[in-house]
What we know:
Blueprint: E1 2-9, E2 18-27, E3 49-50, H1 65-74, H2 96-99, H3 107-119, H4 127-134, E4 135-137, H5 139-143, H6 146-149, H7 161-177, H8 179-185, H9 205-218, H10 227-233, H11 243-250, E5 274-284, H12 286-296, H13 299-318, E6 323-328, H14 337-343, E7 348-354, E8 358-365, E9 368-375, H15 383-411, H16 421-433, H17 439-442
Parallel strand pairs: 1-6, 4-5, 6-9
Antiparallel strand pairs: 1-2, 2-5, 3-7, 7-8, 8-9
Amino acid sequence: xxxxxIDEAGYGPRLGPLVVAATxxxxxxxxxxxxxxPWQPVHxxxxxxxVGGRDQARGCGAGSxxxxxxxxxSRDGAGGGFDVLPPGILPGISDSKRAYSRRKGLGGLxxxxxxxxxxxxxxxSNLEEFLERCCVDGxxxxxxxxxxxxxxxxxxxxxxxxELRRGAEEFAAALLAAEGLGRxxxxxxxxxAPGSGPSSGPASRAASRGADAVDRKAGAxxxxxxxxxAAVRAGSPGGEDTFGAVEARAGGAAANEGGGGKRETAGGRxxxxxxxxxxxxxxxGATRYNEIVARVxxxxxxxxxxxxxxxxxxxxxxxxEGVSLTVDRHGGRxxxxxxxxxxxxxxxxxxxxESEEESCYRLSGGGRGMGLRFAARAExxxxxxxxxxxxSKYTRELFMELFxxxxxxxxxxxxxxxxxxxDGERFLAEIVSSGAVTRPEAERFTRMV
Length: 449
């Protein structure tokens, strides 16, 4: 069974990249059935409905009582009954907002992120190597901009070798200590699925096509962001438009945004415990950010499109083992079935629950299975999401360090910026006033929304 989490950093700022990250772990006790799986809501739960076909009867689908009990033991108290990595199971892994501030500095993030990389042998001596190992989309394009490419940024930034080694050792020890978790969550005894282990390379064409489809079809209408859009495809009442009409109105041409390089390799096998499979990143610099938003009409669709690259990456590489994926909720979005139907056209998508707290879905097809939960404050409830938040924040801060050094060297006595809207406007005004750049030129690295 695969535990995974997705989170972002830099969704709201005016300056600097948006980074979306996923981390994944394999529980060592065996792989559950891909078409069933321990992500089912416990003891019946709410009625589910199928997005791509007929309505489902009340109850939460296949799986033995033992599987339900395992999920109940590991659930975090949320309505969906999903398996998660409990908070605190990995020392030093927490919500990036707790680990990092300008006062605290990068140390906490660096210890967790580079410690995890070193624990599985994926060391990097600079930002370019780090992106080659972790980034599946957009890293190369972002790093090519002059304000990021003017000099090499060595790693680590603040910690010494001894501290990083201790971080890696503590991370590896925590994986071993999770033996009980690995055994408790798996109800099936089966061999590891062929091709399900770690791999290298950028996101697959299918994963990139999924993001392109979201960009192209979801567009600016917001029609997929309501329960009716899912109900229409299920043949249920509710929703005045057919999904085909929604697609026709959404419009917009999409191109395959490439970039990135080799995905982080993994190692850290802990028999009976947890195996860390690594991290995957999508990086969206300001130029590309503006291009995509201009095409799709809003930044919420852009965010889901990048997250869908990571979702599909997990689906294709690990879906035959069964994936339990938690994603930090995207702003106030409550309904995801329509977007998932675009990103996963080959999958059966069942809506398990949609509430203010979390929205839960089950995807299956082609021998693959994934339980997918979008949850508020997910980084506080699932260690895999917390680690993803640290990877995304650490990566963004590395880019921002380069960005500040580039412009401060040209603008003189200007205070550095974290890139957030009000302070970003202050920074732009000061570097324009200094003569380092004109306002039209600054639009190349400034987000429009």
